[in-house]
Specification:
By secondary structure, the chain is of the alpha/beta class. The protein has 20 helices and ten strands. A six-stranded parallel β-sheet has the order 7-6-5-8-9-10. The C terminus is likely disordered.
């Protein structure tokens, strides 16, 4: 079994394509369930953000599974598959592990090192766990990815050098309206991105923050948390007229703020208005950019600016951490892959010793118990010594490059029963690498302890 990643992101597709594959929470659940029941897939989840949609799957065959998963991503749009496929990327097995660790560390983000991706990775794990589509393979992989992200933020300076997308957008807005200190801000939406926007504008000194959402209770909760004011969506036009900055980041699938609404509001307004649209698909009609004294800052513009000049940050330390973690994880995974064969081999040896001791007891029934114990001890010691070096070497060789399956060779040489190896495989859950005390709040499926109780170590 191997991990497959098929996705599309800001690095491979324009915002117009990303908008068409964007998913709300219900859409993510539906996609994950569809992938999970497709042929060759045993586990699945999806990582969906404002600038990426990625499917992660544990599969038993590459070609059949990559075709099926790619088709499901293409079906999210009304475009022809040939118009979407060029924007997709595929990572498999070791490459999939490396990709997820880079994503969780923020190295693949639009703003390198931004911290929101860690929460979004955790959400992908939760979706799979609650939907019953994640098993031991993806659970272990995502748990370790979360630890990699935490380690990056704890051990490097990426936090100071890599603000969130919201912070970068607000920097652009301040170029238009000046410092937010004392300014009036309107936020449309009440999700995590909206919450980050409200918190950030408050830190920057915004004096009056108004929140609107389709669900007024959600808007009221967010506004109360930051001493703001909640209003119904029907009152948005009036509030825009009094605002210096408008931030929109809803999960709607259509335009929330049409040109007519913004144009009507601007007829009674004085001074410039900066509009930040962080939604995917976009909330604000792009035509508002043509209105006098209105500056529209959308994801497409942010992507162009961020790619035009790399964020001033030394990411080499982050890359070193990620590469170290990828190597450690792959080494542990390859070693664990031979565990079922090693356990089956030792079980076979124990059976041979037991059979021979039973045969000895039938031929020499009058043998003194202490002599029999000494003989049994000697025989078991011989068996252990004969098996020690092969089992140690097979674990070492499993981490060397090449196409040889040393575990399969060992099973063939000792004529191990394939059913016995398979039986051990079913309980042999890879142990999660290097768990730290601060990681205890992460959700886990369990299973490793059960495997250890069965003698799998």
């Amino acid at each position: 079994m191997s991990v497959l990643v098929v996705g599309v992101s800001h690095k491979t597709a324009p915002v117009s394509v990303l908008e068409r594959v964007a998913l709300d929470a219900a859409g993510v659940d539906k996609l994950v369930q569809a992938v999970a029941v497709s042929e060759h897939v045993t586990e699945a989840t999806a990582l969906a953000t404002c600038n990426r949609v990625e499917i992660y799957a544990e599969v038993d065959r590459f070609h059949g599974s990559v075709e099926a998963v790619s088709r499901m991503l293409c079906e999210l749009t009304d475009d022809r598959p040939e118009d979407v496929v060029p924007h997709l990327y595929v990572h498999y097995d070791d490459g999939a592990v490396s990709h997820l660790f880079h994503v969780a560390a923020g190295l693949d983000s639009m703003v390198v090192g931004e911290g929101q991706i860690l929460g979004q990775t955790r959400e992908a794990l939760r979706v799979g766990q609650e939907g019953g589509t994640i098993g031991p393979a993806l659970n272990t992989l995502f748990q370790q990815a979360l630890r990699v992200g935490k380690r990056v933020h704890a051990e490097t300076d990426i936090d100071r050098a890599a603000p969130s997308l919201v912070s970068v957008a607000l920097d652009r807005a301040e170029d238009v309206v000046g410092s937010l200190d004392g300014k009036r801000v309107m936020v449309v939406g009440a999700g995590s991105m909206a919450g980050l926007a409200v918190a950030t504008v408050r830190r920057r000194g915004a004096a009056n923050v108004v929140v609107a959402s389709r669900t007024h209770a959600h808007a009221a909760r967010l506004a109360t948390q930051y001493a703001g004011r909640a209003v119904p969506l029907a009152d948005v036009q009036q509030e825009i007229a009094a605002a210096d900055l408008l931030v929109s980041c809803t999960g709607a699938t259509g335009v929330v703020l049409p040109l007519s609404t913004v144009a009507a509001a601007r007829q009674r307004a004085e001074g410039p208005l900066a509009i930040i649209d962080l939604a995917l698909p976009h909330d604000v009609d792009p035509a508002v950019a043509d209105l006098p004294d209105v500056e529209l800052i959308g994801l497409a513009r942010l992507a162009d600016e961020l790619h035009a000049g790399e964020i001033a940050a030394d990411v080499e330390a982050v890359r070193d951490v990620v590469n170290e973690e990828v190597t450690a994880f792959l080494t542990a995974r390859r070693s664990s892959a031979v565990t079922p064969t090693v356990v089956a081999l030792r079980t076979m040896a124990t059976g041979v010793v037991d059979a021979e001791m039973a045969r000895l007891a039938s031929r020499l029934p009058d043998l003194e118990p202490e002599v029999r114990d000494e003989v049994e001890h000697a025989v078991r010691r011989v068996a252990d010594k004969l098996l020690h070096q092969p089992t140690v070497r097979v674990k070492e060789l499993a981490n060397e490059t090449g196409a040889v399956s040393y575990a399969a060779a060992l099973a063939e040489l000792f004529s191990l029963d394939p059913d016995a190896v398979e039986a051990v495989t079913r309980v042999a859950v890879p142990e999660e690498p290097r768990r730290r005390p601060e990681d205890d709040d992460e959700p886990a499926l369990g299973g490793a302890e059960a495997a250890r109780r069965e003698g799998v170590t």
